[in-house]
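This section describes the prediction task in plain terms. A model, or a person checking by hand, is given the sequence of a single protein chain and must write out its three-dimensional structure as a string of tokens. No templates, partner chains or ligands are provided. The sample shown here is typical of the held-out split.
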Amino acid sequence: MTVDDSGSAGTAADSPLPRVLCDTAELVSLGGGAPSGALWKLAEPGRQLDANVVRLPAEGRVEVHTEPDLDVLLLVLDGAARLGAADGEHPLRAGVLTWLPHGSARSVLAGPDGVTYLTVHRRRAGMRVQPPEAADRLRPSPGGDGP
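The expected answer:
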């Protein structure tokens, strides 16, 4: 690996290049005509992140689950939803960026027009969505050093 005059590592021939991957405005423009589920997935080889654009139809739901290992960012692109969490429900609308810390139990309920959102998290082999009680293994036991 070499360093060029600009201070960047690598050469033009061997450096990864930034790329436009998806036009989320185009996906959002499909509105209610968009299929439910993942509309787009990051699939670039050698990536360190996973990302998805997901569409839930009107009143669609992602049931309560726990992601024990990964923090997730959720950005609402279009529509509205309610995020269910241990401390109650939180309204989500276009432009709202939400942090879902690892170990937290959460659910998503789409509003009357559905919701389209982007999720981003560190990459790992195979997602392991867990039931809410799986978060208990992350909490120290009372009077103990850990699980």
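For orientation: The longest helix spans residues 24-29.
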